[in-house]
Design brief:
This protein has a domain of 210 residues. The protein contains 12 helices and no strands. Helix 2 runs antiparallel to helix 3 and helix 7 crosses helix 9.
Length: 301
C-alpha cells in the first residue's frame, strides 16, 4: 500500500507539474504547446549533471533544474514560437510544430546522453518500473514529493491569483491588446510564463526517477497523453488547479493499470497508452460535440 501511494505520488507529481506548465503557456499564448513534455527530459539530464558533478543529494538539484530548464524553455519560445506568432501562423500549425519538437527533443536528449558519456550509479536506474520505484524510494527522502509538490501548488496558487504578475498573466491571456495599451509588454510576460512553465517541468524531472533502463529520455512520451487529458479537463481553470487535476489523473491511471494487471495479467500494462488514447479521443469528441465534460473545481456564478 505504501509503495502504491508513493508510486502514485511520483507519477502524480510529474504529471501535475507538467500540467501546470502546460496550462500556463496555453493560457498566456493562446495555443497548446504540444512539445512541453520534452522539458521533463531536459530537467532530468541537467539536474542529474549538476547533482553528479557537485556530489549533491538529488533534492539539492531542484533549483538548478528549475533555473536551467526555465531558461531553455524561454529561449525556445523566443527563437521559434514567438517568431511564428509574429508571422501570423495559425494556432494549429504552431501546436503541430510543438509535437514535432517534442519527438526531435527526445531523440536529441537520448543521443546527448551517450555523447557526453555520463556514468550512472546503479541506484539511479534499473530495468523494470517496479524496481525503479523501489530504488527511487531508497535514495530519496520519502517526504520530499508530498511536501515539495504541496509547497509548489501553494506558491503557484498565490502567484497566479494574488500578485501583480498573476494579474498581468491573466490580462495578456484574456485581452492582449488592452494589456498592451495599458503598458504591459505581452512578449515579456509570455516569455516569463514559458520560463516558469519550463522550470516546473524541470522540477518534474527531478521529482520523477532520473532514468529508466539507463536513458534520460526513455518513455518521456508516456507523459504526453495524461498531461493532455489533464489540460483539457482543467480547461479555463487556473494553472495550480490543473496541477491538482494532473495528480488525480495519475492516480486513476495507476489504479486502472494495477487492477487490469490483477484481473488479466501483466500484459495489460502494455496497453496503457492505447487505453489513454481512447479516453482522450472520447473527451475530444465530447468537447467537439459540446457535450458536458465533468470539469473539476467549477466556479460558481
Amino acid at each position: 500500500m505504501v509503495l502504491f501511494f508513493y508510486a502514485g505520488l511520483i507519477l502524480g507529481a510529474t504529471i501535475g507539474l507538467l500540467t501546470m506548465g502546460f496550462r500556463l503557456t496555453h493560457k498566456t499564448s493562446g495555443y497548446m504547446n504540444l512539445g512541453h513534455v520534452v522539458n521533463v527530459g531536459v530537467g532530468m539530464m541537467l539536474g542529474f549533471i549538476v547533482v553528479q558533478q557537485l556530489g549533491l543529494r538529488p533534492i539539492m538539484g531542484t533549483p538548478f533544474a528549475f533555473l536551467l530548464t526555465g531558461i531553455f524553455n524561454a529561449v525556445v519560445y523566443r527563437v521559434f514560437y514567438h517568431r511564428m506568432e509574429k508571422r501570423g501562423y495559425s494556432e494549429a500549425l504552431i501546436s503541430l510544430f510543438g509535437l514535432v519538437f517534442m519527438y526531435l527533443g527526445v531523440n536529441v536528449i537520448t543521443i546527448a546522453t551517450y555523447l557526453v558519456c555520463l556514468h550512472f550509479p546503479s541506484e539511479y536506474w534499473c530495468g523494470t518500473s517496479g524496481a525503479l520505484i523501489r530504488n527511487h524510494l531508497h535514495y530519496r527522502d520519502p517526504l520530499y514529493e508530498p511536501l515539495g509538490l504541496s509547497l509548489l501548488l501553494i506558491i503557484a496558487g498565490y502567484l497566479f491569483t494574488r500578485t501583480n504578475l498573476g494579474i498581468k498573466l491573466r490580462a495578456v491571456a484574456e485581452t492582449p491588446t488592452l494589456a498592451e495599451i495599458c503598458g504591459t509588454n505581452s512578449v515579456n510576460i509570455k516569455t516569463l510564463a514559458w520560463f516558469i512553465a519550463g522550470g516546473l517541468a524541470g522540477v518534474a524531472g527531478i521529482v520523477s526517477p532520473y532514468l529508466y533502463k539507463g536513458e534520460f529520455a526513455r518513455d518521456i512520451e508516456l507523459y504526453y497523453i495524461p498531461v493532455f487529458i489533464s489540460g483539457i479537463l482543467s480547461e479555463k481553470k487556473e494553472p495550480w488547479v490543473a496541477g491538482i487535476i494532473g495528480i488525480l489523473v495519475a492516480y486513476i491511471q495507476l489504479i486502472v493499470v494495477l487492477n487490469g494487471q490483477a484481473s488479466f495479467g501483466n500484459w495489460f500494462a502494455d496497453f496503457t497508452q492505447p487505453i489513454l488514447a481512447i479516453v482522450l479521443a472520447i473527451i475530444l469528441y465530447m468537447k467537439d460535440r459540446k457535450i458536458s465534460i465533468p470539469v473539476l473545481f467549477n466556479k460558481r456564478d
